Each structure stands twice: as structure tokens, then as C-alpha cells.
């Protein structure tokens, strides 16, 4: 049995949690839109063709904001193709995924779907084949009340009220050579600045995110962020960062290191933002939008991303997640929460079928992948503020990261209901980890609200249509409370959520 200690103090607050860190992503890619959220004729589809089973699972997942319509797709997208009478919408070849796009689902359908799903939209403007002019035109269509050509066009399309979309991404992964109309940092920094300016003139209430690096391993990483922000620092609120985790060595101990790398990535990008701010002697802080993140390695080869013959909605990168992937997703959520002072939006990519927590069969069932569960638990209990943690845990070393503590945890205090939530990973593959958690100043008379674990003896176990609950949350019965201390036993390779409540909330 390994032992560890975790200490927090009510007064040592890292940050309030921005609920937008529990975001997801819907791209016109594979079966994410068509056959995912939208499938007219499906037994659960509503009058608009939205799958009811997927809507229900999206609500259960607890996604708060959803990024749309891409992704790489964004860089070749004409927003006008996806609005207005359906029978007049053009069918086009999508050069991002070598697929045929029918445009039967577009901006207004996504807004209707968002309302039914109870999520906030996060939109992107095409800075690949398009530029500032299209961006301002699109924003006018979406957010202006009326009395101008494009806002009146929206009204003609049946949407009297503006959509009032608050969060906008200035393009997608513009540092990537794979991007349609990839740019250098200077080219992109200039276009991001000018696009941001005109968009803010159309609607000063929006928030804007410039593209950061597509990955920490990009050759331009670091200099890209610096140069882009050197151009557009004063006009943007966020810089994005994207990351997809790989289980390179097929060893869970090595795999856990990717969580530490995410933490390093976040801190590095924040430092670069602050370096640009320091050079300008600016008091403004740029926040981080981790607007694409997930595990993605089993379907990362080109044959998983492109199917011959320009098919409509082919199955692309339909990664099947296993128990260890769920632990990585859980660990990434802990890293995001432990950086809640800088990460204000984050999107698990994507929502359904395409590297998604939800999987569907066209015409058939929908089920929860393993990674659904840590996300749903973190979103359910991720209300309030993150406390600064001091932890003392045995550790091990790996090639992915030199020192990996077995215990990886975050503590959330929710003054609204008096609960304190500890989200903790045990990264030992062989040993239980007994953790003493001191909740200083959070109230001594504590009771247990919930103790849930995600653990499976077989790290390769998966959920399927026929066995959808192989990896699912269970109760962790090994919790004891003594005064302000919660003592919990974490199973080897497990993700845990322990919620306690003080009798007298502070
Ligand atoms: O999520 C799949 C793809 O990964 C996105 O389209 C792109 O932005 C990223 O490279």
C-alpha cells in the first residue's frame, strides 16, 4: 500500500472555475454531424432531424460550450452554403477530409441544436480560404439585430432574433502545413489582428481566440505564439492550444506522463503570453482556450482520415476508447482544473463518433465510451473554485516525464452548496494508494455526499454497443472522515471523485 497526503486551505484559492472548460467540439467531419447529432429518419430523431438519444447523452455528459463547425473543415468553409432553404444549398467537396459536404446542416441548425442540448456555441471564422471580410459578414448575419443586408437575411431565414454568439475562434490550426491555406506566424498574426478589429467593430461584446500551436511538438511552437501575439495582443482575449495524447510505448506508466506534458504545455503558453504582455508593459492577461484535446492515436493514420471516392459522412477516426484512455482523460481534466486561473475554455474533441465520448450506430443505438465517464463526473462536480493543493506522494520516473507522482489531484470548493470535491488519480498500476486529505478551514463536521471511482482490472477494456457498461463509474466504499480529514483508498490505476459536505458551510 502506498501512502500520500493532500492539503488545501479554504483561503488559498487558485481561481473560480469557468464552466466553459467543460466544452466539446462538433466538426463537419466523418459522422460527427451527419449520423451523429443529425440523422433525419433515425427512430429517436425529432422534427428537425436531431437524434434524441445523442441530445440526451450530450446533456448527461455535461458539455457546457461546443465549438463548431471545425477544425480543419473550417479553413475551406463558406458559411453562406449552410444557411437558407435546404434545397438551394450547394453540395461541395470538402478538401479537409476529402468528403462530400451536402450542407443540409449549417449555422441555424447548429444554433437550434445548441438550445436543445443546453450548450453555449463557440464559432470559428474561416481564415484559410477567406479572411476579415467574410468574418465580419458572418458575424453580422449571426449577431446583428436587423436593418442590414445580412441580419435581414437571417431574419428571412426564419431567425428573427440574433444568435448572440459570444465566443469566436480566429481560424483553426493556422500553423499546420496540413491546413487549407496554412500561414506563417507573421501572415497569420496580421490577419488575426485585422479580423479581430473588424469583428469587434461589428459586435464589441464578443470574445476572440487567436490560433496558437496545433501541438507542443510543432517545430514553430513558442515562436508562433510569441509572434502571433506580438501582432494581435491588444485585440484578442485568448490564444488556443491543441493537444492529442498518444500511448507511444503502449505502457500505462509511460502513458500517464502525457498528463504532466499537458500541464507543462499550459504553463509554457501562459508564460509566452505574459512575455508578450511584459514587453508591452500591459496589464492585460491573455487567457488560454484548450479548444481541442483528447486521446487520439489508434486511428491517427491517413487511412483513418480519408476514404476514397469523396463519400458523404464516411466513418473517420472512430477511435474506440479503453479503460486507460479514460484515466488519461480524467488526468487531463485535473490538469485543466489545476490551471483554472489561465484555462478558461477547453473542448474535448470531438463530441460524437469522431474521437468522441459518444458513439452511435447509423440508424441504431448510441452509447457512452469509457472517456465519457470522467468528463461527466468532472463537469457534474466542477462548480465553484479550485483550491491550491500541496501534495506529498511517492513517485516514479518514465521516459515521457522524469518524475510522475502516483497521486494526481485537484480540490474544488463550492461555497454555493458547501461541498468540497476531490478529483484524484492513482497512477500506480499495482498498488492501492491511501490518501489523507486535509481540508483546512472547510468545516470539521463533514459527511460523505458521493465517492465514485472509474477502475477496471483490464486497462484495455472497452465499451461497445452490446456491452456498453464494461467501464463505468462505481462506488468507492473505502472512504473515512475524521474531523477535517478525509481518508480514502484509491485502487491501482483509478480515477476517483470524492464529494464531502460540511454540516455548517463556511
Ligand atoms: O479533431 C480532428 C482534427 O484535429 C481537427 O479538424 C483539427 O483541428 C485537428 O488537427
Written overview of the protein:
This protein has 506 residues and is α/β, with parallel strands linked by helices. It folds into two domains: 2-11 and 386-502, Immunoglobulin-like; 18-381, TIM Barrel. The protein is built from eleven helices and 26 strands. It has helices at residues 52-61, 107-117, 132-143, 149-156, 185-202, 223-232, 252-255, 257-279, 302-305, 323-337, 372-381, and strands spanning 2-9, 13-16, 23-25, 65-68, 92-94, 99-101, 120-125, 167-170, 207-210, 238-245, 287-295, 343-349, 358-360, 366-368, 385-387, 390-392, 395-396, 404-405, 407-414, 419-426, 433-440, 446-454, 474-475, 479-482, 485-490, 494-502. Strands 3-4-7-8-9-10-11-12 form an eight-stranded parallel barrel, surrounded by six helices. Strand 24 and strand 25 (485-490) form a beta hairpin. The chain binds alpha-L-arabinofuranose. Alpha-L-arabinofuranose binds next to loops. The site of alpha-L-arabinofuranose has 11 residues, from loops.
Radius of gyration: 23 Å
List the quaternary state of the chains: single chain
The CATH architecture of the largest domain would be Alpha-Beta Barrel
Structural class based on helices, strands and sheet pairing:
alpha/beta
List all distinct small molecules, including ions and cofactors, that are bound in this structure.
alpha-L-arabinofuranose
From the spread of the alpha carbons, the general shape counts as: globular
Tell me roughly what share of residues is in helical segments. Answer: 10-25%
> Average pLDDT, to the nearest integer?
97
Amino acid at each position: 500500500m502506498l501512502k500520500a497526503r493532500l492539503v488545501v486551505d479554504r483561503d488559498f484559492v487558485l481561481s473560480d472555475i469557468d464552466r466553459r472548460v467543460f466544452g466539446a467540439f462538433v466538426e463537419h467531419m466523418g459522422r460527427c454531424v451527419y449520423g451523429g447529432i443529425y440523422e433525419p429518419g433515425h427512430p429517436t430523431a425529432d422534427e428537425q432531424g436531431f437524434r434524441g438519444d445523442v441530445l440526451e447523452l450530450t446533456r448527461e455528459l455535461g458539455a457546457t460550450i461546443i465549438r463548431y463547425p471545425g477544425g480543419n473543415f473550417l479553413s475551406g468553409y463558406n458559411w453562406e452554403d449552410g444557411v437558407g432553404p435546404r434545397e438551394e444549398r450547394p453540395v461541395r467537396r470538402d478538401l479537409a477530409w476529402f468528403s462530400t459536404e451536402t450542407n443540409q446542416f449549417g449555422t441555424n441548425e447548429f444554433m437550434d441544436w445548441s438550445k436543445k442540448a443546453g450548450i453555449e456555441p463557440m464559432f470559428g471564422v474561416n481564415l484559410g480560404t477567406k479572411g476579415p471580410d467574410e468574418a465580419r459578414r458572418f458575424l453580422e448575419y449571426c449577431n446583428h439585430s436587423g436593418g442590414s443586408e445580412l441580419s435581414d437575411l437571417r431574419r428571412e431565414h426564419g431567425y428573427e432574433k440574433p444568435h448572440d454568439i459570444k465566443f469566436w475562434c480566429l481560424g483553426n490550426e493556422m500553423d499546420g502545413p496540413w491546413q487549407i491555406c496554412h500561414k506563417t506566424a507573421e501572415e497569420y498574426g496580421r490577419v488575426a489582428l485585422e479580423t479581430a478589429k473588424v469583428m469587434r467593430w461589428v459586435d464589441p461584446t464578443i470574445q476572440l481566440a487567436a490560433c496558437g500551436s496545433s501541438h507542443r511538438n510543432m517545430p514553430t511552437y513558442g515562436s508562433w505564439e510569441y509572434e502571433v501575439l506580438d501582432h494581435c495582443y491588444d485585440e484578442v482575449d485568448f490564444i488556443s492550444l491543441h493537444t492529442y495524447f498518444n500511448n507511444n510505448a503502449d505502457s500505462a506508466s509511460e502513458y500517464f506522463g502525457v498528463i504532466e506534458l499537458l500541464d507543462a504545455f499550459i504553463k509554457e503558453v501562459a508564460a509566452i503570453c505574459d512575455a508578450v504582455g511584459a514587453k508591452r508593459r500591459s496589464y492585460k492577461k491573455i487567457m488560454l482556450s484548450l479548444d481541442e484535446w483528447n486521446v487520439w492515436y489508434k486511428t491517427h493514420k491517413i487511412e483513418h482520415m480519408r476514404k476514397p471516392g469523396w463519400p458523404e459522412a464516411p466513418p473517420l477516426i472512430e477511435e474506440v476508447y479503453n479503460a486507460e484512455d479514460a484515466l488519461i482523460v480524467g488526468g487531463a481534466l485535473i490538469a485543466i482544473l489545476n490551471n483554472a486561473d489561465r484555462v478558461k475554455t477547453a473542448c474535448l474533441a470531438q463530441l460524437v463518433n469522431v474521437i468522441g465520448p459518444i458513439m452511435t450506430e447509423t440508424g441504431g443505438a448510441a452509447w457512452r465510451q469509457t472517456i465519457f465517464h470522467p468528463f461527466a463526473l468532472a463537469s457534474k462536480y466542477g462548480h465553484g473554485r479550485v483550491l491550491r493543493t500541496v501534495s506529498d506522494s511517492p513517485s516514479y520516473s518514465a521516459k515521457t516525464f522524469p518524475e510522475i507522482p502516483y497521486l494526481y489531484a485537484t480540490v474544488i470548493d463550492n461555497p454555493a452548496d458547501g461541498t468540497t470535491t476531490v478529483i484524484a488519480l492513482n497512477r500506480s498500476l499495482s498498488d492501492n494508494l491511501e490518501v489523507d486529505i486535509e481540508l483546512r478551514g472547510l468545516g470539521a463536521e463533514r459527511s460523505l455526499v458521493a465517492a465514485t471511482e472509474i477502475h477496471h482490472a483490464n486497462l484495455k477494456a472497452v465499451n461497445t454497443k452490446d456491452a456498453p457498461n464494461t467501464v463505468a463509474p462505481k462506488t468507492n466504499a473505502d472512504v473515512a472522515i475524521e474531523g477535517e480529514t478525509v481518508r480514502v483508498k484509491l485502487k491501482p490505476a483509478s480515477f476517483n471523485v470524492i464529494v464531502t459536505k460540511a454540516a455548517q458551510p463556511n
